[in-house]
């Protein structure tokens, strides 16, 4: 999303990017929340069974994307989904770019969580 889809949407023009944002958001929101919850619960299970705090750290990192999304990204989502938003405006383009930056933060945190969990698995296997 961060490296390919969102930049490609913007490249197609602001009006089309805002139009495509709605269906993409609706499909991704449920999936992302579900995957974050599953990863968090699995990491807690691994932490309890392996007694390695790295599993707990990875789980905490992955679940932080949920409040970050609700606090930092959701207001921008709502503005982009507003039917009164002029899809060709500079405001729309600024909102799309802001969303891209915020999503990049979420991507970095998710990637960091993945690396921590991957290293936790490597340490647990030894």
Descriptive account of the structure:
The structure is a single chain. With 126 residues, this protein is an all-alpha fold. It has one domain. The protein has 5 helices and no strands. The protein is elongated. The chain starts with a helix and ends with a helix. The relative contact order is 0.17.
Name its key features.
126 residues, elongated, mainly alpha
Describe, in short, the structure shown.
With 126 residues, the chain is mainly α. The protein is 86% helix and 0% strand. It is built from 5 helices and no strands.
Strand portion: under 5%
- Give me the strand/helix succession: HHHHH
What is the helix tally? 5
- Cα(first) to Cα(last) distance is 34 Å
- Counting DSSP E segments of at least 2 residues, the number of strands comes to 0
Q: Which secondary-structure class do the elements indicate? A: mainly alpha
The residue-averaged pLDDT reads 92
Unreliable residue stretches: none
Q: Round the Cα radius of gyration to an integer and report it.
A: 17 Å
The biggest beta sheet is recorded as: none
Helix content: over 70%
Overall shape = elongated
What oligomeric state is this? single chain
């Amino acid at each position: 999303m961060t490296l390919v889809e969102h930049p490609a949407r913007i490249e197609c023009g602001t009006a089309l990017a805002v139009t495509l944002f709605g269906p993409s958001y609706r499909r991704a929101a449920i999936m992302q929340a579900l995957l974050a919850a599953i990863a968090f619960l699995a990491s807690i299970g691994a932490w309890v069974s392996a007694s390695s705090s790295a599993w707990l750290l990875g789980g905490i990192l992955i679940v932080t994307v949920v409040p970050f999304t609700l606090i930092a990204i959701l207001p921008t989502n709502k503005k982009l989904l507003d039917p009164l938003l002029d899809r060709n405006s500079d405001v729309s383009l600024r909102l799309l770019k802001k969303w891209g930056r915020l999503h990049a933060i979420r991507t970095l945190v998710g990637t960091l969580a993945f690396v921590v969990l991957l290293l936790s698995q490597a340490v647990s296997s030894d």
